[in-house]
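Input (structure):
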């Protein structure tokens, strides 16, 4: 917790108070559980050819309504067409202590996939409004950025180079504001 607090504190210092700019990239400490869960889910579902998602993008309205209801927050899958990625769909996943999590999967024209994992964090263990700060994570082949905004944790995972993931993370963050 101390490492996470220091990392978020560093990010807060890089992020002007009250600003709606993209969060700064902070130093990663011990990974929060939702980031480890995101990397595991990414590794399991990205290789799937027939069933990479539970609900396809063609049923996006149903997908968003269902996942929003299960997580208890209004979700909005980012549009990444300008960055070369289209939404494939998403799925409901279990998280820590049986809490529901959402995963949205995107693919580009070269069949490169990225996943955005969304979790609602336990209010007892996280500050009510933790400052947004991008943190880098790497777990074998899966790498990505994660951040906490209020009570929601986001983790973007892929095997793409860090620079390309940074562009995607920035685009996602801007759309979620």
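Output (sequence):
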């Amino acid at each position: 917790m101390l490492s996470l607090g220091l990392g978020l504190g560093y990010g807060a210092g890089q992020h002007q108070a009250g600003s709606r700019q993209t969060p700064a990239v902070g130093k990663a400490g011990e990974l929060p559980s939702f980031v480890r869960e995101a990397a595991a889910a990414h590794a399991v579902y990205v290789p799937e050819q027939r069933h990479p998602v539970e609900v396809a993008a063609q049923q996006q309205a149903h997908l968003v309504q269902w996942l929003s209801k299960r997580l208890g927050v209004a979700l909005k899958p980012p549009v990444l067409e300008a960055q070369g990625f289209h939404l494939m769909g998403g799925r409901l996943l279990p998280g820590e202590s049986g809490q529901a999590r959402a995963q949205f999967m995107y693919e580009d024209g070269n069949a490169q996939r990225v996943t955005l994992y969304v979790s609602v964090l336990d209010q007892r263990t996280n500050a009510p409004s933790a400052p947004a700060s991008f943190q880098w994570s790497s777990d074998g082949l899966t790498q990505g950025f994660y951040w906490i905004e209020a009570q929601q944790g986001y983790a973007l995972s892929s095997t793409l180079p860090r620079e390309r993931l940074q562009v995607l993370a920035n685009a996602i963050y801007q759309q979620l504001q």
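Notes: Confidence is low (pLDDT under 50) at residues 1-22, 24-28. Helices lie at 2-14, 33-45, 60-71, 162-176.
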